[in-house]
Specification:
Layout (H helix, E strand, L loop, with lengths): L3 H10 L4 E5 H11 L9 E5 L5 H11 L4 E6 L3 E5 L7 E3 L4 E5 L7 E7 L7 E12 L12 E8 L4 E2 L5 E2 L1 H9 L4 E10 L2 E8 L4 H14 L5 E6 L14 E2 L3
The chain binds zinc ion (ZN).
The site of zinc ion (ZN) has 6 residues, from loops.
Length: 248
C-alpha cells in the first residue's frame, strides 16, 4: 500500500545505505521529503519503469543522491544498469545476451536470453520493450555492451497518420521543456486525436490555451491535441505511472 508519508518518516529517522523503488514510487517519496533534512542514501536504485529526466531531477534534489537506473524483468532479473556517467545502461553480458532489432542509435524490440536459468531456460525472450544501442562507448571505460536508452513498453506509443510511433521521450522533449507542467500523461483517443492530461503549477484557462497552441505547433499536423488540466494523475493499480496510453 502506498504510504509516502511513512516512507518519508523512515528516511528522515536514519540514513539508508540503499533505497530501491520504481520511478513513480521514488517520485512520491521525493515529494514527501522535499525540503526536509534527509541524509542522502549511498545508493538510490530506480527500476520497473522508465526513469524520466524530470523524475531524476526531482529525486536528486529532494534526496541528495543521483538515482541509478536499472533495467530488468521479473522473469529474468535485472540485466542492464547505469554507471556513474549516467550515459546509458551497461548490459550484464556475462549473465544475459541482449539483442535489439535495430541499428545502433535506433529504437527496436528488445530480446533477452538469461544464461543462468538451467531449470526454466528463457531464450530470446521478447520483453515487449523498445531499446536502442549506444553509438559510442561509455566514457567510464567499461567495455560491456551499452544501451543508450530503454524506451519502455513497445505498445505504449501514439500512432501518427504517416505510420510513425511516438514514444514517451518524444513527449518528454515537448512537455519537459514546459516549466509550468509538473506531471503529464498522453492518451490516444482516435487515429487523429490525443488527450494530454497535465498537472500545472499555476493552472488557468490561459495557461491551458497557450500550452495547447505550443503543442499544436510541434506535433504532426494531422494529430489533434486537446489539453486537460487536472489536480493529479493517479498511478496504475500496479503502482506505476503510464506516460503514454495507446488506443485500446
Ligand atoms: Zn559506463
Amino acid at each position: 500500500m502506498a504510504d509516502p508519508a511513512g516512507w518519508a518518516r523512515q528516511l528522515l529517522r536514519q540514513r539508508h545505505a540503499c533505497v530501491v523503488a520504481g520511478a513513480s514510487t521514488l517520485e512520491l517519496l521525493a515529494e514527501a521529503v522535499a525540503g526536509q533534512p534527509v541524509r542522502p542514501p549511498r545508493v538510490l536504485i530506480s527500476d520497473s519503469e522508465p526513469l524520466t529526466p524530470r523524475t531524476r531531477a526531482l529525486v536528486r534534489e529532494a534526496l541528495g543522491t543521483d538515482p541509478v537506473d536499472v533495467y530488468g524483468l521479473e522473469e529474468v532479473s535485472n540485466f542492464a544498469w547505469e554507471c556513474e556517467q549516467h550515459a546509458g545502461l551497461h548490459v550484464s553480458a556475462d549473465s544475459h545476451v541482449v539483442e535489439v532489432e535495430a541499428p545502433p542509435g535506433e529504437a527496436g524490440p528488445l530480446r533477452v536470453t538469461a544464461l543462468g536459468m538451467w531449470t526454466m531456460p528463457i531464450i530470446r525472450y521478447e520483453t515487449g520493450d523498445l531499446a536502442a544501442w549506444a553509438t559510442a562507448p561509455c566514457s567510464c571505460g567499461r567495455t560491456l555492451p551499452l544501451l543508450a536508452a530503454v524506451h519502455g513498453r513497445a505498445v505504449d506509443s501514439i500512432s501518427t497518420g504517416d505510420g510513425r510511433k511516438l514514444l514517451w521521450p518524444f513527449f518528454h522533449e515537448l512537455l519537459g521543456a514546459e516549466a509550468d507542467v509538473l506531471c503529464w500523461q498522453v492518451r490516444q483517443q482516435s487515429r487523429a486525436q490525443i488527450l494530454v492530461r497535465v498537472v500545472l503549477q499555476q493552472p488557468s484557462t490561459d495557461a491551458v490555451a497557450m500550452l495547447t497552441a505550443r503543442l499544436r505547433r510541434k506535433l504532426p499536423p494531422d494529430l489533434h491535441v486537446e489539453i486537460e488540466a487536472v489536480a493529479a494523475i493517479p498511478l496504475e493499480a500496479n503502482g506505476k505511472r503510464r506516460l503514454v496510453i495507446p488506443l485500446p
